[in-house]
Amino acid sequence: MAGQCFSENPFYILGLRPDCSRADLEREGQKLLAMLELKLAAAGSYPTPLGPMPRTADSVRQAMAELRDPRRRLVHELWAQLPASPLPAEPPRPAGPPPDPSGSSAAPAADPHPAGAPPPWPQARAALGFGARR
Amino acid sequence: MSVGALGIIVWLIYRALVHNRPASESGTRGNLGLVLSIVVWVLVGGMMLVWAVQLRAGELAALPKLLVGLVVLLPWPTLRLVLLPLGLLRTAYYLSFLCLVRFQDDRRGGALLVGAWALLRAPQRAATESEPALRFLEKRLHRLKNLRGAAVVAMGLGAARRGELEAARALLESAFNLDPAACPQWALELAGEWLTVDAVAQGSWSKVCARDSGVRPRSPLTRFLRACAARFVTPAEPTLAPPSDLALTLAWLRAPHRRATFSLLQRARLSRPQPAPPSPAAPPGSPEPAPELPAALRELALVLLAPSSTLTQEQLLRVCRGFDAALRSPATLRHLTERALSLGQAGPEEALRELRAQLAALIGARLREAALPIDQLLATSPAGQPASELGAAAAQAVRTQLLEEIEQACDALHDRTTDKRELPVEDEWREWAALRARYHRVSQLGGLTIRRLAWGPLHREVCNWAVWLWNERRHKVLANAVFRFLLTEAEELQDDSRITLARKNVNCGI
């Protein structure tokens, strides 16, 4: 997965800031393991800049092990400089495509294509003779 | 005499006439088909007149005979207007054998293509529902001794039905390398139409313009979509001028599926071609990103969140330059040194090296997902400095991966050719289509330099393999298509020594 450095960052998994102490790390890790043991919903996921990710006891143990190694911890600290709060899914765009004059329903919001060109038309294959019509 | 009995007699005559004729006598076979069609038209047409008179006299029993006669006289319109839209695979497959002129030398291939097209249009309620139909086609495909164009297009449509769109694209693209005598024009039109519609489905209008360029045959639907694309984007092909409103409307009127494409027509009429995209060279006046690691990480996270189809080279270059600036900034280095010392490390260099490697891998993966060319990231300033150190590292990683992939594929082909491990001809074709598509992707992503690097091993192994196919296995149509591809590529790369060889091989014919 392309965004593993963010989504599986041990600091995000443990819900800690990069400047936390070793004691914070152990305490938070044990607390999360206990919560996961009790199947508390609050411990079931953690926020990352790419959105919430599922948390498991294994991932917590692995995160603790990673952060106990000072060399590995320093690399993870670099990645965790970005706060864990989720980012907006789409970067702001200067201009959108012109509205479809026919009011066609197949018009997603983001248009990666040249201004004026219609957005992807996933039903095109079926509508133009290369798929079953529904 | 019933229509069925008459059909059988005519068919037996045809079989007797064409049986055991070599493939080289394709023109004779086509003429026989024409003569036979005229005979069928005269005989069945005469009988239909009699049945029409009987029907007029009140004999209702003549009605089914008239309908059957109509199907015999007009098999292709029956297929196009009735059986294909209904998705009746088997009926379409068998009826297509009555299309004596249209399918000429490749009746079985044509029937397979009609069957695959019908299957593509058949409703699919469950994933496994089309398995028996696909097996029906595969079985008949396997029986073919030599694959020709229609069968290759049928394989492509079959892959599309299975949802293997990449394989379908590769197979249908490979059909355009076939000798014209081995592939009916309408099959190529159909392949081009599917590829164009596929590009429209992805919203890739520039691909609609680029595809179908040159001398490819075009169906009315392809022409209309291409005309729309010329309105939406600035085509790379300078001869493709944006059509006038009248020309656009006429193209729409000629094309099928007018109701489905009406909104597209309206949109195209309102659009005017966009100005050409900016030069891929690094923008000299673009502002330097803020040298802060969180800002650079934020930019990267946004790039990771964005759908890959929306990414541009400029976005990725900006991310790379952001990291270059952040990782060079004294504030970042000071902070990192402090953290490294507090953790008992000698310094931050090792962590920075690892971070750079991870970033290069991440950006490289994103480049590949978005199918973006790497040339802009590899571009250097007049002083020889790369536009971005991180970008150059990512592009180099992608470049190495691309070349390794091609080399692995070529090595596998080399081993198989040396060991003379044969595959069924349809699997040989699938392997060729996959390799061709991979080479195309490498050329597209890597630019001319990598294309030239990949060309050497590709030519060596593919040429040897095709010679083996031609000389020993007698799969001349496939071998000739490969030779044609090699010739086109050698000409585009101006590789004079290989042009001569490829011309000689192409002239060996099918």
Walk me through what this model shows.
- The complex is a heterodimer of chains A (134) and B (510).
- Chain A is an all-alpha fold.
- Chain A has a domain at 4-79: Orthogonal Bundle (Helix Hairpins), CATH 1.10.287.
- Chain A is 38% helix and 3% strand.
- Mean pLDDT of chain A is 79; it is low at 91-114.
- Chain B has 510 residues and is mainly alpha-helical.
- Chain B has 24 helices and no strands.
- Chain B has helices at residues 3-18, 26-56, 62-73, 75-86, 89-95, 100-103, 107-121, 131-143, 149-161, 165-174, 185-201, 205-210, 220-232, 245-254, 258-270, 293-305, 313-328, 330-342, 349-369, 375-378, 389-419, 425-471, 476-492, 496-506.
- Chains A and B meet through α5 and α6 of A and α11, α15, α16, α18 and α19 of B.
Spatial extent as radius of gyration of chain B: 29 Å
Tell how many strands the DSSP assignment of chain B holds.
Answer: 0
Work out the oligomeric state of the chains in this entry: heterodimer
Low-confidence stretches of chain A: 91-114
Question: How much helicity do the residues of chain B have?
Answer: over 70%
Radius of gyration of chain A: 22 Å
Kindly report the average pLDDT value of chain B: 85
Q: What would CATH call the class of the domain at 4-79 in chain A?
A: Mainly Alpha
